[in-house]
Design goal:
The complex is a heterodimer of chains A (455) and B (483). With 455 residues, chain A is mainly alpha-helical. Chain A has a two-stranded antiparallel sheet with strand order 1-2. Chain A is globular. In chain A, 59% of the residues are buried. The two termini of chain B are 31 Å apart. The longest helix of chain B is centred in the C-terminal third of the chain and has 32 residues. Chain B is mainly α and 483 residues long. Chain B has a two-stranded antiparallel sheet with strand order 1-2. The chains are: A mainly alpha (455), B mainly alpha (483).
C-alpha cells in the first residue's frame, strides 16, 4: 500500500511542479521517490501484504516492482532532456508516474477489476505520451493508432472478464481459480479466457496481435519508445503471467497450445521481418516483439515455476534495450535525426564508448554466449525442453540464429565502415546511463543465479 | 586457485591494455604475455610435484541449473595452456613491425581471447567449457572486423555465424547428456558417467554433435569453407591466434569431451570420423599443391594437419594421443612461423603470390635458412618437432587401421611437394623486379625467427620433457575409456 501511495503522491506532486518552477530539480525528487519505492519493497519483502482484498504485494509483485522502478530511474535519467526541454514538463512527469502506478497495480492484482484498472492506468498516459511530439505527423499517427487498437484490446479484456464473471460468479482471482478447478470447464469461461489472452497478447505485442508495435515504436519520440519497450513490456508480462498463474492454472490443457503457437509465431514473424529492416528504430521494435516471443515461452512453462526466469529475462532484455534505444537516440541527434543503418556507419570512429556499449547490447540481445541475453534464452529453452516442448525450443533456436543476422548488421556498420559524420562527445548524464546499462549487462552475465533464485 | 590465476592474468591484462594502453601498447603487451608465460611455467613445475588441491577450484555458480564454476588442470590441459602462453609473447613480439590503429585495443582483444582459451582448456564443467569456447569467438571476430582486409564484413560474419552454428550442436549434445545425469549436473564426471550409460546409437549422435562443432573450428573437410577466406582477410596477429591457438581448442575438446564421454560411440562409429579426417588430409593437401598464394597455402596445409590430428585422436590409443598432442604443439609453433614468414614477405613486396616472388635466398640467406627449417618441420623431417608428432600419430593410427594410416602417411609426402614447391618458388631462382630490392631482416624479425627455429629443433631433438607432461593423464584417460 505504501508503495502505491508513494508513487501516486509523487504523481500528484509533479502536477504542481510547474507552479513552483521546479523544472531543474524535479528529476532528483522523482529519482529519490522511486529509490524510496525500491527501499519500501525490500523492507516489505516476504510480508505478503494484502491491500483490501484487491492487491497482494507478494514477492512476485515486489520483485517486479523493484525491477521496473529501477528501470524507471535509469529511464528518467536518460530522458532528462526530453523533460527539461519541454514546455509541459510537469504533465509529462505526472503521466509517466501515473502509468507507473498502473504498473504497480498490474504486478500485484488479485482481482479482475484491478487488472482492468491497472491496464487502463498504464495505457492511457502512454497514449498521450506517444503523441507528445505534437508537431510531428508520425507521432500523432502513432498515438492515434495505439489508442484505437488499445481500445479494442481493452474491449476484449472487459468482455473476457464479463464472461468469466458470468460463468464463475466472481471477480476474485482465487475464487475463480477455485471454481474452475472444482467444476467442469464452462464453455463461457473458456471463451472469456481466450478473450483475455487476446487482450494481454496485444499488450505484450505478441503475434498475431503485434501489428501496432512497429508503427507506434517508430512514430513515438524515442524516449517514450524506450519506456514502452522496457518498463511497460516488463509490467505487461508480469501481469500476463500473474493472471494465468493465479486464475486459469487449472485450464492449462486448453491454453498451453495457444501459448505455444503465439510464441512460435511471434518468434518467426518478428525475427524474419526484423532482418529486412533498414531503419534501426523499427528493427529494434521488431526485436522487442521477438523477445516477447521468448518470454511467451517462459509463460508457456509456468508450471515449472518460471517466475524467476521471466524476471531475469525481462530484466536482461530491458537493460539491453534501454541501452540500445538510448544510444540510438544520441546517435540520431548527432546525425541530423537519422535513424537508419547508414547513420551508424563508422560509429566507432566517432565515439568509441557508444559503439562499444551498443555492440555489447546487440551481442547480449542476440544471445551470444556468455552474455546475459544468452543465459536468459538458455533458461527459457531449458524450461521448454523440460516441459516437453522441444519443438518450441527448436523454433526458438532457429529464431535466435536469424536474430544474429540483424543485430550484427548494426555491429558491422559501426565497426567495419568509415564514418561520414564528425566525432562527438557524450555529456556526463548520457555517459552515466549507458555505463550503468553496460555494468548491468555484465553483472547479469556473471550472477544470473542471484535473480532467478529470488522468487 | 592457480588455474584461476592463469585465466585472470590475461583477463586483467586485457582490461589494463584497453583502459590505459594507448601510450605504451607494445611494452605492456609483451610484459603481460611474459608474466603469463612465467606463471604457466611455475604452475607446470608445481603440477609435476603433485598436490592436486592447488589447481582445482569448484564453486557453485548457477544453482538451479546444475552449473558450477569448476576448473582444474591435468597434463593435457597443462600442455595446451603451455602452448597458448608460449605462443602469445611470440605473436605479440612478431607484431612489433606493424603499426595498426589503436594497437592497444588489438592487444586487449588478443589477451581476452587468450584468457577464454585458457579457460576452455581448464574447464571441468560442460557449460563452462561451452561459455569459454564461445567467449573466444567474440574478440577474434572484432579483430578481423576492425583490422581485417578487403571484404572483411561479409567474410568475418560468415566465419562468426558458421562457428556459432556449429557450437550450437555441441551445446545441444551437452544438454542431452546433462538431462540424463541423475542430479542434473554439468560436472565433467557426471557427464562422463551419464554419457557412458547411454545406448550406442545415442552415443553416436552425441559424438556427431560434438564432432560437428569441433570439426568446424579445426577446421576439417567438408566444414572448412570459412577458413581460407578468413585466414586471408584476418590481420597477421589475428590469423596467428586463429591458426596457432584457437584451432587447438577443437582438438583439445575432442580429447576432453568426446573420447571419455561416449567411448562406445567412438568404438562403433569412430571409423567414419577417421575416414572424414583422412579425406580431409588428402583433399587439403592436393588443394595446397595447386595454390598460387602463399597465405592460402598455409591455410590449406593447416587443414591437412588438423585432419591428421583429428584422425589420431579418434584412433584413441596411447601413441596416437601422445602424437596428436605433440603435433598440436608443433603445429601451433609452425603455423605462427609460417605466417610470420608470409608477413615478412608481404610487408616488403605487397604480394604473396608465389610466382611473382623468387630469389630471396640470394638477398638474405639467413632468412631463407630459417624458413627452410620451418618447412622441414612442417614436412616432419626427423630432428624437428613435426617429426615426433607425426611419427607417433601415424604409428598410433596404424594400430587402429593400417589402411587409414597409409593414406594419412601420404600427408607427409604431399606436404613435401607443396612446401618445397613454395620454398623453391619464393626463395630460389632469380630475383625479379619485385624481390630485387628486398630489405634484409630487421633485428626484431630475426629474433622472432630465431626463437621459432630454436623451439622447433629443441623439441625435435629432445621431446621427452613434453611427452612426460601428458603421459600419466593420457593413461588415466585411456583407463576411463576402456572401463
Amino acid at each position: 500500500m505504501k508503495e502505491l501511495l508513494l508513487i501516486s503522491g509523487l504523481g500528484v506532486l509533479s502536477l504542481f511542479a510547474g507552479l513552483f518552477n521546479l523544472r531543474k530539480g524535479f528529476l532528483v525528487l522523482v529519482i529519490i521517490g522511486l529509490a524510496a519505492n525500491i527501499g519500501l519493497s525490500i523492507a516489505d519483502w516476504g510480508s505478503n501484504e494484502v491491500v483490501y482484498g484487491m492487491m497482494q504485494l507478494d514477492n512476485f509483485a515486489l520483485s517486479f516492482n523493484i525491477v521496473f522502478s529501477f528501470l524507471s530511474i535509469l529511464w528518467f535519467i536518460a530522458a532528462r532532456e526530453y523533460f527539461e526541454l519541454d514546455n509541459n514538463f510537469s504533465d509529462h512527469y505526472a503521466l509517466v508516474l501515473f502509468s507507473l502506478c498502473g504498473g504497480l497495480v498490474l504486478v500485484s492484482f488479485t482481482n479482475m477489476v484491478m487488472l482492468f484498472l491497472g491496464i487502463e492506468i498504464l495505457s492511457i498516459p502512454m497514449f498521450v505520451l506517444v503523441g507528445s511530439h505534437k508537431t510531428k505527423l508520425s507521432s500523432n499517427e502513432a498515438a492515434f493508432k495505439y489508442f484505437l487498437l488499445g481500445a479494442f484490446a481493452t474491449a476484449f479484456l472487459l468482455f473476457g472478464i464479463t464472461l468469466i464473471y458470468g460463468s464463475t460468479g466472481s471477480f476474485n482471482n482465487a475464487a475463480i481459480a477455485a471454481y474452475l478447478s472444482n467444476h467442469p470447464l464452462p464453455p463461457m469461461a473458456f471463451v472469456g479466457m481466450l478473450m483475455m489472452m487476446t487482450a494481454m497478447a496485444f499488450k505484450v505485442s505478441a503475434a498475431p496481435f503485434h501489428f501496432w508495435a512497429p508503427d507506434v515504436y517508430q512514430g513515438a519520440p524515442t524516449t517514450i519508445t524506450t519506456f514502452m519497450a522496457t518498463v511497460v513490456k516488463t509490467v505487461a508480462f508480469a501481469a500476463f503471467f500473474r493472471l494465468f498463474k493465479t486464475t486459469f492454472v487449472s485450464m492449462e490443457q486448453s491454453y498451453q497450445i495457444a501459448f505455444a503457437i503465439i510464441a512460435t509465431f511471434t518468434l518467426l514473424i518478428a525475427n524474419i521481418t526484423a532482418s529486412i529492416q533498414t531503419n534501426v528504430k523499427r528493427m529494434l521494435a521488431y526485436s522487442s516483439i521477438s523477445h516477447a516471443g521468448f518470454m511467451m515461452i517462459a509463460l508457456l512453462c509456468m508450471r515449472s515455476h518460471t517466475e524467476g526466469t521471466l524476471l531475469f529475462y525481462t530484466l536482461v532484455y530491458s537493460i539491453s534495450s534501454l541501452g540500445a534505444f538510448t544510444i540510438l537516440d544520441i546517435v540520431s541527434k548527432n546525425t541530423d535525426g537519422r535513424e537508419d543503418l547508414d547513420g551508424f556507419k563508422g560509429l566507432l570512429r566517432r565515439n568509441r564508448t557508444l559503439a562499444g556499449i551498443l555492440a555489447f547490447a546487440m551481442l547480449s540481445m542476440s544471445g551470444i554466449p556468455p552474455l546475459a541475453g544468452f543465459m536468459a534464452k538458455y533458461m527459457v529453452f531449458v524450461a521448454a525442453v523440460n516441459n516437453g516442448y522441444l519443438w518450441v525450443a527448436v523454433v526458438g533456436i532457429i529464431a535466435s540464429l536469424i536474430a544474429v543476422y540483424y543485430y550484427f548488421k548494426v555491429i558491422i556498420a559501426m565497426f567495419g565502415n568509415e564514418s561520414e559524420y564528425p566525432a562527438f562527445k557524450l555529456n556526463p548524464v548520457q555517459t552515466f546511463v549507458i555505463f550503468v546499462t553496460a555494468i548491468g549487462m555484465i553483472a547479469l552475465s556473471i550472477f544470473p543465479g542471484a535473480i532467478i533464485g529470488l522468487i | 586457485m592457480l588455474t584461476l590465476l592463469l585465466i585472470l592474468i590475461p583477463l586483467i591484462s586485457s582490461i589494463l591494455l584497453f583502459g590505459f594502453g594507448k601510450k605504451a601498447a607494445r611494452p605492456m603487451a609483451i610484459a603481460f604475455s611474459l608474466i603469463e608465460l612465467i606463471t604457466a611455467l611455475i604452475v607446470l613445475q608445481l603440477l609435476k610435484t603433485g598436490q592436486a588441491g592447488l589447481f582445482e577450484l569448484n564453486l557453485p555458480w548457477i544453482n538451479g541449473l546444475g552449473i558450477r564454476f569448476h576448473i582444474g588442470l591435468d597434463g593435457i590441459s597443462m600442455l595446451m595452456i603451455l602452448l597458448t602462453t608460449l605462443l602469445m609473447p611470440l605473436i605479440v613480439y612478431a607484431s612489433f613491425n606493424k603499426n595498426y590503429n589503436n594497437f592497444h585495443t588489438l592487444y586487449a582483444f588478443m589477451f581476452l581471447m587468450q584468457s577464454s582459451i585458457i579457460g576452455s582448456f581448464a574447464a571441468m564443467d560442460g557449460f563452462l567449457f561451452y561459455l569459454f569456447w564461445e567467449i573466444a569467438l567474440i574478440p577474434i571476430y572484432f579483430i578481423c572486423l576492425m583490422w581485417g582486409g578487403e571484404n572483411r564484413q561479409r567474410i568475418t560474419f560468415k566465419f562468426f555465424l558458421y562457428t556459432l552454428f556449429g557450437s550450437l550442436f555441441m551445446l545441444l549434445a551437452l544438454i542431452y547428456v546433462y538431462l540424463h545425469t541423475p542430479d542434473r549436473s554439468f560436472d565433467i564426471q557426471a557427464l562422463y558417467k551419464a554419457g557412458r550409460a547411454l545406448s550406442v546409437v545415442e552415443q553416436g549422435f552425441i559424438m556427431s554433435g560434438l564432432f560437428l562443432a569441433f570439426a568446424i573450428k579445426m577446421p576439417i573437410f567438408p566444414f572448412h569453407t570459412w577458413q581460407p577466406e578468413t585466414y586471408n582477410v584476418a590481420p597477421t596477429p589475428g590469423v596467428m591466434m586463429l591458426g596457432g591457438i584457437m584451432s587447438k581448442m577443437a582438438t583439445y575438446g575432442m580429447i576432453r569431451w568426446v573420447l571419455p564421454m561416449v567411448p562406445q560411440g567412438i568404438a562403433e562409429y569412430g571409423h567414419i570420423l577417421i575416414v572424414i579426417s583422412v579425406i580431409s588430409i588428402l583433399y587439403a593437401s592436393f588443394i595446397s599443391i595447386v595454390q598460387k598464394d602463399f597465405k592460402y597455402l598455409i591455410a590449406y596445409s593447416s587443414i591437412a594437419h588438423m585432419g591428421l590430428i583429428a584422425a589420431g585422436i579418434v584412433a584413441s590409443n596411447s601413441q596416437s594421443l601422445q602424437g596428436s598432442l605433440m603435433e598440436m604443439l608443433s603445429h601451433g609453433i609452425n603455423t605462427v612461423g609460417l605466417f610470420f614468414v608470409y608477413d615478412i614477405i608481404f610487408n616488403r613486396t605487397g604480394t604473396s603470390e608465389m610466382k611473382k616472388l623468387g630469389g630471396i635466398r640470394g638477398i638474405d640467406s639467413g632468412f631463407a635458412f630459417m624458413f627452410f627449417i620451418i618447412v622441414l618441420s612442417v614436412v616432419a623431417l626427423p630432428f624437428t618437432n613435426g617429426f615426433v608428432g607425426e611419427f607417433l600419430l601415424i604409428l598410433g593410427l596404424f594400430q587402429n587401421s593400417p589402411i587409414a594410416a597409409s593414406f594419412a602417411g601420404l600427408s607427409i609426402v604431399l606436404g613435401v611437394v607443396y612446401m618445397f614447391r613454395s620454398f623453391q618458388a619464393m626463395m630460389l631462382g632469380e630475383t625479379n623486379a619485385i624481390t630485387g630490392h628486398l630489405a634484409k631482416l630487421t633485428r626484431q624479425e630475426k629474433i622472432t625467427l630465431y626463437i621459432i627455429v630454436i623451439l622447433i629443433i629443441s623439441m625435435g631433438v629432445y621431446p621427452k620433457p613434453i611427452l612426460d607432461i601428458t603421459e600419466s593423464s593420457i593413461q588415466t584417460l585411456l583407463v576411463g575409456i576402456n572401463k
